[in-house]
Amino acid sequence: MAILLYRLGRLSFRRRGRVVALWLLLLALLGGGAAVFSGPTTSKFSIPGTESQKAMDALSREFPQAGGATGSIVVAAPEGEKLTPAAVAPVTEEAAKVPGVLAAVDPFVSKAVSQDGRYALVQVQFDGVVDDITDAQREAFSEAGASAEGLRVEHGGEIMRGVPEIGSTEVIGVAVAALVLVLTFGSLVAAGMTLLNALIGVGAGMAGLFALSSTVELTSTAPILALMLGLAVGIDYALFITSRYRHYLAEGMDGEEAAGRATGTAGSAVVFAGATVVIALAGLAVAGVPFLTVMGLAAAATVALAVLVSLTLLPAVLGFAGVRVLPRKQRAPGGTPAAPAGAGFGFRWGRTVARLRIPVLVIGVVGLGALALPVQDMRLALPDAGTEAVGSPNREAYDLTTEGFGEGFNGRLVAVVSGDSAQATKAAAGETAALIQDTGGVLAVAAPQMNEKGTTALLAVIPETGPTAAATEETVHEIRDRVAGVTGASVALTGATAVGIDVSEKLADALPVYLLLVVGLSVLLLALVFRSLLVPLKAALGFLLTIGATFGITVTIFQEGRLADLVGLDTPGPLVSFLPILLIGILFGLAMDYEVFLVSRMREDFVHGADAREAVVSGVGHNGRVVTAAAVIMTAVFGGFVLMHDPIIKSIGFALAIGVLIDAFVVRMALVPALMHLLGRAAWWLPRPVDRVLPDLDIEGERLHREIPVQQKPAELVKT
To answer: Is the pTM of this model over 0.90?
Structure first.
């Protein structure tokens, strides 16, 4: 592996003009494809095969007029006054004239008026699904009722759901990353080159993703997640290889040889670190959730592209940069030499951790365990309008509905009764309505609505509690249990609330299987890389501490609401249902990045003859600065997404940022060297039968050093 990448690095360096031209051409082609073939994203979160989704599919076939998108208009009279049919009529009439609207129901006909007469709900049914609603339709819908003087009119429903957009907040993360790179390298050229390399990679990845969006259904979260990860790992991988390149230049190698060896050694670590991330993200497919599979594969493709860019484009760009990647004092012949081996904060930290290894292990494990305690109270749900930003149209409509009718009106359920004949369906619908009405937690059940054939009936069910309340989940399960015995027709419960509950339960069931799969595969991969049993096990256990503490902190802030103001969270609530499994996949990959970056240098020094404990200090000393810089950069990139208003993106960005901080600074920079020093030579123990079976991947470059000895030239570092 190391020799192959060494040759690739030298080739890219030598043919740098052609390599850069090819990447720019690819970027242009992908950009053109994105401009021509880009399609809309979807805000739907559903899982085929669940009861709620089967019912929705049946509605589309048997009751098409009820299968389209819906909206709601909440009308409120001034305090102390009551609404009249004449006052609300203009709102209903204007809503009915919106393009694509099948019907707007008069609240006085549907009896959707509050008991005090002050509030009314106008239900609006569209003929198309929510993803087909255009911006012009939304705009027209939001203006319905503008002529109603003296009344408060708010517009909500699924068609008003906000779609997260890539905006200026991400620039903050990139700016912080640039500052960290300048401080780390001491060179504007090195920092700018590293950042540019990552931006080209993420640009190509995002363009390719949008080019496929017309044929692959992308959720609105998928492109942002791909951007988040692609940018973070792109900078980190370029940082790691560039740091090794500078190290070799400082040792006196010429530019081409330094680029080849940096790609062969640090590049090998990047390949396996990237492979771990890709495995973790692609493994999301085991959950059997289509939207999550697409999110994982999209992010995995972006990470894979970041690895490819780092191995080919980066050596080429290094060729153009020349000695300017070094600090100014080290560029000229006879300039200030690099710091001697064994000097610097990284080595001092490594020795300190080695000396205090027992206290470090005890404090670290106990502290992270304490932070994980809130996990036992974690609740999952799909976000509803009640968690959107205060002041957004959907949130205003949600709050006004709750004020006038109660929170249950925001979480309506739909019972779908399907029979072979009109008579059987009608009888089953009546029986179903009676059973649901007697269920605890149900506020009201509307009269059945029949399709034209009379073989499908809809019953609107209003729970007493809101969409994400634990009591609503219990009500849904109780309703399903009670109607299971209805004869003569099949009964299924659906609606946005039921869909959310089904998705959350499906993901919760898949979580242990996914965790076991990802950890197991990564342990095998790390065993191949480091030829050790204890190092992979240590890495996996360290990750479990990271994920527990990250979940605990996220639950404390986003679910329980403590310190919520610090992240700009308006309304705490259950964590978004796919956050845990997504967080495990991403954080595990990133955690193994740091493990590979840090321990690969320990392994490299060990196989080259260093004492096992000296190798630990050397690994922390040489690569600790790179790992901490990479962690700060990732935290900055992820933290930039915390500033977005969308609660899903905000929670993902926060959890990733805090997880990276914990894993890099507590687990990898403290617990790992402490445990490695405690284990000593035993850390690299591998049973002989296993040693004979495992292939030698040579990530540390031992074969490279043996078969291609270093040839240093006193000539210029780089010839341009």
So the answer is: no
